[in-house]
Hints:
PH domain-containing protein; PH-domain like; membrane; transmembrane helix; four-stranded mixed sheet; 38% helix; transmembrane
Amino acid sequence: MKVTGGPLVRAHALRPHGRLLRQSGLSVLALVAPVSAVLYWLTIPTDSWRPVLIGQIILFAICLLAAIAYFRTVIWVDRDGVTERGFLGRVTSYDKSEIGTIVLLDLYESGALDTHPQLFVTGLDGRLLLRMRGQFYSRGAMETIVEQLDAPIVRVAEPMTLQDLNRSRPELLYWFERRFTSHTD
């Protein structure tokens, strides 16, 4: 694994769904607008509205930074390997020679019957190199990874729960997903 300061030029740039930023922005607005209106209504008569304004400016700055991070998130892939710039700006690159297998499966959403595709790129030693979640990336973007990397692929036919995946392949999950998923039947 190489952690670099800047992205390499790749043939395909895969970005998260655009609707995620829109939905997140609307959710924040739906929460902040009524609360702000009430706070201004309570503080303007007493001339103590300035802290409310400062809080709104700080929240706006955080939202702006999150939007910038979202727009900078990208996965570049070509026949030589894959490079990911994550949400927090970390850039990791993996050469095709470092890639062991690609696992493609459908994972049930928590408490629902809906599934989302998940793609896992593992190293020769079995450790997780890259994960693409269906909540963020399209199935077409995942298929682009499969086509470009041309690595051995494991397609799991039946959808799995997070608990099933934790039992069979815990190394594919993030630490917090392994921690909060029970190992008992």
